[in-house]
Amino acid sequence: MDTKTLLEWSAKYHTPNYGARAPICIVRGEGARLWDSDGREYLDFGAGLAVANLGHCHPRITGAIREAAATLLHVSNLYHTAPQIHLAKLLCEHSFADRVFFCNSGAEANEAAIKLARKYGRERGASDRYEIIATRNSFHGRTLGALSATGQERYQQGFEPMVPGFKHVAYNDLRAMERAIDSRTAAILVEPIQGEGGVHVPDDGYLPGLRKLCDAAGILLILDEIQTGVARTGKLWAYEHVGAAPDIMTLAKGLANGVPIGATLAREEVASVLTAGTHGSTFGGTPFVSSVALATLSTVIDEKIPERAARLGRYLMDALGGFPRDVVREVRGRGLLIGIELTKAAGPVVDACRDKGVIVLSAGEKVVRLAPPLIVDENDCQRALETLRSSL
Ligand SMILES: Cc1ncc(COP(=O)(O)O)c(C=O)c1O
């Protein structure tokens, strides 16, 4: 089928919610390279939306996919399967958590976290605690619960009323958070770095400060590491940069390198309120996806991918610091999650980069976001930087 016809059918048959899709059809990927249906090669500095952390068709992941697909795709959660057990164990051994619930996406992982926090607040709190304090400019997903937690009205418009029980305060503002906590508060929910909201990195004292506030008030700290997790920021989990472990952490995106998965991790005491029958998912943690996530996480750990992301992130940030100040207002980020705030709209810059063969993302109106596969090398970074500079 020719590309022109495919794009016409896309315009005709898809719901129009992805209005501004790029006018190309991607057919193949390898490492940090993608190819479109006309045979054009692209350097991928988006990794989907910060998903393919090990790059496209990584041999270990492709091998795990082949083997899992030929062994057992699906059984329900009425039964045990070894890959799901091994994955939960590996996640717990490499994080603060004691227990894991598996689902299929970031939004669902946050739904589970919200439900868990409410149930914990109701059962263990000193009063009827159900409210969750999130932050302005955050992004937590598109389901109604996660959307209600999201602190950006533009995503909520037309879908009101939102689910009650959410409050929003300014990000990186401990005083505002402290003032917002009251006898109804069950939890604080934040991203360690606001990703979709424009790659905003809080002060180093912010997460430890939130941890202290939660401990003092007897409430839970939920970290949404859906974008920052799995080595993206130069540590396996972004909270490790500042040593402030949460009570609940949500993961998705990079956890199975592109195969859909979500996970909600929690400390024992918190997880224990999710008693039999209180939550579930048909597809959550199938042997197939668990095998792929297990291969992904093992590869990330074995190949010291966090260190690599940290090193290349510094390389990019240093170079971006020398970009012309009349167009680049600020460069923010950690590891290979980088936001370049421009003095003008980011959209045309993203398009110009793509026309020159480099895929980058935006995050909000004026921020170009770089979130390449974490396996990129210095030459890839150099090419991305040159393309970006000539596209500003
Ligand atoms: C921080 C964060 N939370 C939640 C989500 C929602 O994830 P999903 O699209 O898998 O539902 C995203 C997606 O961009 C995200 O960046």
- Spans where pLDDT lies below 50 across 5 or more residues: none
Portion of residues in helices? 25-40%
In order across it, which strands form the biggest sheet?
4-10-9-8-7-5-6
Distance between the termini: 35 Å
Please characterize this protein's 3D structure.
This protein has 392 residues and is α/β, with parallel strands linked by helices. Helices cover 38% and strands 17% of the residues. The protein has 14 helices and 15 strands. The strands form 3 sheets. It has a 7-stranded mixed beta sheet with strand order 4-10-9-8-7-5-6, with helices on both faces. It has a 4-stranded mixed beta sheet with strand order 1-2-3-13. A 4-stranded antiparallel beta sheet has the order 11-12-15-14. Strand 14 and strand 15 (367-370) form a beta hairpin. The radius of gyration is 21 Å and the shape is globular. The model has no long low-confidence stretch (mean pLDDT 97). The site of pyridoxal-5'-phosphate has 15 residues, from helix 5.
Topology, please?
Blueprint: H1 3-13, E1 26-30, E2 33-36, E3 41-44, H2 47-50, H3 59-71, H4 82-93, E4 99-103, H5 106-124, E5 131-135, H6 144-149, H7 153-156, E6 166-169, H8 174-180, E7 185-190, H9 206-217, E8 220-224, E9 248-251, E10 262-266, H10 268-271, H11 287-302, H12 305-320, E11 328-334, E12 337-342, H13 347-355, E13 358-359, E14 361-362, E15 367-370, H14 378-391
Helix pairs in contact: 3-11, 4-11, 12-14, 13-14
Bound molecules: pyridoxal-5'-phosphate (PLP).
Residues 49, 105-107, 110, 139-141, 191, 195-196, 224, 226-227, 252 line the site of pyridoxal-5'-phosphate.
